[in-house]
Amino acid sequence: MTAAAAAGVSDLQEAVLTVTVPMGRSAVASATEQLRTIGLGSCVAIIIFAPAQHLAALAHCMLPSPNGWGGDAAKYVDTAVPALLKALHRAGARAPFTAVLVGGASMFPGLETGFVRDIAGDNLRSARAALHAAGVPVHAEDVGGHVGRSVRVDSRRQRVTVHTIAAGDRCL
């Protein structure tokens, strides 16, 4: 888009860079970027905002803790929260921070949880505990249930939009 054409673009449609965060990974976005992740089932998206600096960080966490396994810190809730805060600090963020949680769905309703580990529930409990331990309040959630979700994070507006097939978009 040319500068002349861009001048006519409304605030809601202004061009921003969209960064897609894959499963088990994380990213930080400035005010000119937005983050997105897709395919949240039992996984949990942990989003931490630094409102004063218009920064946002997102991790697409698969499991509550590493339990001796390797991989990116964002893959595990327990290690994702400190890693997100460290990345935000490196980007110039300062407290106060706020968090949003999305995901943690039980994707197989009716399956006996005594037989299969409740990964979704474990992810949510771990996320809340890790954020609490870090002193980051959770200001919104769209969690649980039996539906998959996708997330779009607008770091400038500090807004999270959750998409489900059944309900469409919902702004948190």
Task: Describe, in short, the structure shown.
By secondary structure, the protein is of the alpha+beta class.
Radius of gyration from the CA trace? 16 Å
Q: What is the number of E strands?
A: 10
Instruction: Write the CATH architecture name.
Output: 2-Layer Sandwich
The parts where pLDDT drops under 50 for at least 5 residues are: 1-12
Order of helices and strands: HEEEEEHEHEEEE
Q: Which structural class should the secondary elements be placed in? A: alpha+beta
Strand order of the largest sheet: 1-3-8-9-10
**Beta-strand percent range:** 25-35%
Task: Give the overall shape, derived from the CA principal axes.
Answer: globular
Distance between the termini: 30 Å
Helix percent band: 10-25%
Number of distinct helices: 3
Domains (count): 1
The largest β sheet comes out as: 5 strands, mixed
Query: CATH class, please?
Result: Alpha Beta
Keywords, please?
globular, single chain, 172 residues, 60s Ribosomal Protein L30, Chain: A, five-stranded mixed sheet, disordered N terminus
Question: Can you characterise this structure?
Answer:
By secondary structure, the chain is α+β, with helices and mostly antiparallel strands. The chain has a single domain (16-171), classed as 60s Ribosomal Protein L30, Chain: A (2-Layer Sandwich), CATH 3.30.1330.200. Helices cover 20% and strands 34% of the residues. The protein contains 3 helices and 10 strands, in the order αβββββαβαββββ. It has helices at 3-7, 77-90, 119-134, and strands at 17-20, 26-29, 33-40, 44-50, 55-61, 98-103, 138-143, 149-154, 159-164, 168-171. The strands form 2 sheets. It has a 5-stranded mixed β-sheet with strand order 1-3-8-9-10, with no helix packed on it. A hairpin with a 4-residue loop joins strand 8 (149-154) and strand 9 (159-164). It is globular, with a radius of gyration of 16 Å. Mean pLDDT is 88; it is low at 1-12.
